[in-house]
Structures are given as C-alpha cells and as structure tokens.
Design goal:
The chain is mostly helical. It is built from 1 helix and 3 strands, in the order αβββ. It has a domain of 103 residues: 2-Layer Sandwich (Glycoprotein, Type 4 Pilin), CATH 3.30.700. The chain has a 3-stranded antiparallel beta sheet with strand order 1-2-3, with helices on one face. It starts with 20 loop residues before the first helix and ends with a strand.
C-alpha cells in the first residue's frame, strides 16, 4: 500500500509551530473591525442604563417624600432638602424615618446630588438631575432627568 503525498507541511523537528505574520494581521484586523462595530453600541447602552437608573431613583425619592408627607404633614423645605429623609428636621415632630434605605440613593448615576425644590415649579416638589454634563438641557446622556 503506497502512501499518497500529503499536502500538510512537515512538522519542524524542534517542535516549534506558530502562525505566520499574515495570519496574525488578518485575525487582528477582524478583532478591530468587530470592536469598532460593537463598542459604540455598548457605550450607548451604558448611557441609557444610567439615565434609566436616574429615572428609577427619582421615582424612589418621590415615594419616600410621599411617606414623609404622610407622617409630617408637609414636604421637606428646600433648606432641609432631601437629607430630611434620613435625619429628622427640627420642625418635624412626627418624623418616623429614615424613609430611604441608603443615602447613596440621593446621588445620581454621574456622582452628583439630585436637585430638590419645594415648593416646586411643576408640583409640590421638583426633583431633577442635570445628566452627565451637569448643565441644564442637553441630549442623550447629557439630558436632564426630572420628576415632572
């Protein structure tokens, strides 16, 4: 029985095998192309997740303010601020808080405290975050997130 010639390259006698420079460049090019296509989508997704988190935190703060109102009979003043949800103000004799579990719920996903105004321009109180840029208005992740 005769052997047919093999199209495989013979193994190197010292046991070292590897990829050619061309093969490595092709693989790196494919990885770079995939990263260029996927990275913007991931960044956009993370930005939306932060905005969604801020909206959920504002709704949570609104609920805590309603509980505060039921106990005290008024919303915290602008000077007392949202800290009144954790520490009883001097004029809140029937305070039964804390009304939130963690104080870090008063910090937006970009590391800035939520803005609180009472009485608000849009209701009994206004809660807002100025987004990533910390300035009014904006688009995308820089957009303001509000309770109204």
């Amino acid at each position: 029985m005769s052997r047919l010639p093999s199209s495989r390259k013979p193994r190197r006698p010292d046991g070292t095998e590897g990829f050619t420079l061309t093969e490595l460049l092709v693989v790196l090019g494919i990885v770079a192309l995939l990263a260029a296509l996927v990275a913007p989508q991931v960044v956009r997704y993370l930005g939306k997740a932060r905005s969604d988190t801020a909206t959920a935190q504002i709704r949570n703060i609104e609920g805590a303010l309603e509980l505060y109102y039921l106990d005290v009979g008024s919303y915290p003043s602008a000077s007392d601020g949202l800290d009144a949800l954790f520490t009883a103000p001097a004029n809140a004799a029937s305070w039964k808080g804390p009304y939130l579990k963690q104080r870090d719920g008063l910090i937006d996903p970009w590391g800035k405290p939520y803005l609180y105004q009472s009485p608000g321009q849009h209701g009994d109180f206004d809660i807002s975050s100025l987004g990533r840029d910390g300035r009014e208005n904006g688009d995308g992740e820089d957009a303001d997130i509000t309770s109204w």
